[in-house]
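Hi U.,

Before I forget, here's the chain from the pilot set. I'm dumping it here mostly so it's searchable later in email.
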Amino acid sequence: MIIAQQSTEMTIASYLTDPSTGGNRLMEVICERENMRRALQRVRSNKGAPGVDGMTVDQLPSYLRRHWDQLKQDLLNGTFKPMPVRRKEIPKPGKRAGVRLLGIPTALDRLIQQAVAQVLQQIWEPEFSDSSFGFRPGRCQHDAIYRAKGYIEDGYRHVVDCDLSKFFDRVNHDRLLSRLATRVHDKRLLKLIRGFLTAGVMIGGLNEPVDEGTPQGGPLSPLLSNIVLDEFDKELEQRGLHFVRYADDFIIFIRSKRAAKRVMESVSRFIARRLKLKVNQEKSKITHPWWMCFLGFSFTSKRGDTRIRIHSKSIKRLKDRIRELTDRNCGRSIHQIVFDLNQYLRGWWNYYRHTRCTSQFRSINGWIMRRLRAILWKQWKNPRTRVRELKKRGIFHRQAVTTGNARKGHWRMSKVKWVIIALPNAYFRRILGLYLPGINLLPDQPNRLGT
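Structure:
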């Protein structure tokens, strides 16, 4: 795999530097067997829903075996026409956040986009800014957070937090293609990319034309967004500003509030006039690192020690999701509830594991186990079952009868002493296998939080 990838990189470099081709044969590189094989492997591993034609990613190999010769000829001749994307609306987190519009390409279009992205990535990656972290190999959100933490420790305590309004829906096609043309001279490839951008959106059986934006949902869109905003990165670097960008989320670190106001005004003008994008004035602000929310994180400082913490909005989203997974009316067994909960908590902890929030984790974990106690108490239903279950778990007869016949609600009973003794934290962790974030930091004591 590594040898094949290195040979592909050498092929791209030779096409870019060969004076006889002038970089005009990139479509041949894209259609190479090894490049397409890696693209197919990546698309199948990502799975994803089918597009407007109904073809799944598992059906791609058999389709390519029958039609690859004609498909390759269409790509090399510049006659391939992408199909419209399928519209999918995903609600954004928050009560008034609205929806995020996704465009799901067909499985075949996703394959070709992935093959194009693999080649363009190698061309543009050396050009991208060191302060850009989104959708780039070897970089992730944690790298962006640690870079921001470094700026805070250097004394940059004012943050220009700009929000680009509907960035992916407002990318100017002409500006994007003109920037692409500075490094890509194969007109067939530029025509193919324009075809993906203008393929349209299928809504209710009708194809709506698109004259701006890059549809979210395709493998090519993240790379194109970085190419669009690379011009913005270069402008900030030329001004000598310290910034961190992840996709369309970026923050600029300034030492004084007066300078931050000047930067906010000048950056907003540059984005509107040069990039033809719009800054959301309601969400953009000048703030301090302790109050901002960047990629779900924030910061705190104690005695000069800057720490990464989880923002309150992220905690609220976590608790809302846990409430859904631990609904007492869901009609599922406690084992199934714990299984689903573990899947979510493992992913959540993998993202937020770099934070130092021992008290937060203690509260969240105690609250989770209290919700599980309330579920079990409801599943035991009648007083006779509750008394029997309490006695089975070591509660004396008198206390078991008193507790089992109590008429208080499930949530109230989940914090009763004898229920906690019968269902301790160790029961959920060791018997049911509950996964808890930051468990190595936590004692076995429950914590009382509001429901």
